[in-house]
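Section 3.1: Structural characterization of target chains.
Under the original work plan, the team committed to producing a structural model for every single-chain target entering the pipeline before any wet-lab resources were allocated. The record below documents one such target. The sequence was received from the expression subgroup and is listed exactly as submitted; it comprises 107 residues.
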Amino acid sequence: APSQLIMAGEETARVELTIAGLTPGETVALSTGPSSPAGLDVVLDPQTIAAPGGKATLTISVRTPQTSQQATFYRIPVRATSDKAVQTTSITVVVNGHELFLPAIRR
């Protein structure tokens, strides 16, 4: 999964999460933070992955209008919990931000 997404207002993005390396009988419960950040709708499906592993989709929808000129940063924590371990990662979402590409200069 990417660690950062740049999205426009009122846009929806889907991020595929891959869960691998589970031992027979092991199940992982997936969750996103205590709640969705204001301005975003976040849905994780499925929320449970069984051995040997699989994929889940994180759907992120921006509620901010596209006409907004102000960039807003959100951090979405994603947690995978099994009987053996807990792992957490996060995805940063930049809404109405702009990517800047500088020209390459040869010397």
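The beta strands are 4-7, 12-19, 27-32, 40-45, 48-50, 54-62, 72-81, 86-95.
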